[in-house]
Specification:
Blueprint (H helix, E strand, L loop, with lengths): L2 E2 L9 E9 L5 E3 L1 E2 L13 E5 L2 E11 L2 E6 L11 E6 L1 H20 L4 E6 L3 E7 L7 H13 L4 E7 H5 L18 E7 L7 E4 L14 E8 L4 E8 L1
Helix pairs in contact: 1-2
Length: about 240
């Protein structure tokens, strides 16, 4: 299986790798991946691979049976199996995903309702909440979000076992997306620390190190999606 470098350091922009497989559809599998694979509402990373005698642009990354699969742009040449490559991600969209993803965790704090879905892009995101009526005070929500950003809270992680997570179902906020399992342990993302902790939940995505890196936030549309679902959009200002 591919080793996920993005979980060790979300700020790393280039890294070596070795091609351990090529799929029948033209995907590339490396022994270790800097590219985040599409999941949990967060898009896969784009970028490029360089090796002796070649280079190929990567359109996205997805999860597959053999690990993380890098999907080249149409018509691109493929590195040979066994090739040593340098992988480089497109940093601007990745950093946007990190800022928005952390901002959505803050949104789940300010609106403490079960989450039924979500999506992330480089400049905005949205969460769907199990909530019959829309929030009454948009300005208060936006102000609370920007207050949490301004507090410059640390964003850290820890790992627990699957059994420990099963014993603490209160940690899971999402109703539609299961926590990332499969290796016997689950990653938790924490915002704040000690008495100032505001959030702790399972997450396999990439995040900023401190909430101040998110920057100013603007609350967008709030839409009704079904009888008891409200979709709330959040924009980087």
């Amino acid at each position: 299986m591919t080793h996920a470098l993005f979980l060790e350091d979300a700020y790393r922009q280039s890294a070596p790798g070795r091609v351990i497989g090529l799929t029948g559809e033209g995907g590339i599998i490396l022994d270790q991946s800097l590219f985040y694979a599409t999941s949990g509402g967060q898009p896969g990373d784009a970028g490029h691979l360089d090796w002796a005698g070649g280079s190929t642009p990567i359109a996205t990354a997805v999860k597959g049976e053999g690990g993380i699969i890098l999907v080249p742009e149409a018509g691109a040449i493929l590195p040979p199996e066994g090739a040593e490559v340098t992988q480089v991600i497109d940093w601007a969209p990745r950093f946007g995903h990190m800022r928005v993803h952390t901002a959505l965790h803050l949104l789940s704090v300010v609106i403490p309702r079960p989450v039924t879905g979500g999506a992330i892009s480089a400049d905005r995101g949205r969460l769907d909440f199990d909530m019959e009526a829309p929030p009454e005070d948009r300005e208060a929500i936006e102000a609370a979000l920007n207050d949490l950003v301004a507090r410059d809270l640390p964003v850290t992680e820890e790992w627990i076992t699957d059994a420990e997570l099963d014993a603490r179902p209160d940690l899971v906020k999402t109703m539609s997306v299961a926590p990332p399992r499969g290796a016997g342990r689950v990653r938790l993302v924490r915002i704040g620390e000690g008495a100032a902790q505001i959030d702790l939940q399972p997450c396999g995505g990439t995040h900023v190190r401190r909430t101040a890196e998110i920057g100013a936030l603007r609350l967008g549309k709030i839409e009704k999606k079904g009888r008891q679902n409200r979709r709330v959009y959040l924009h980087l200002a």
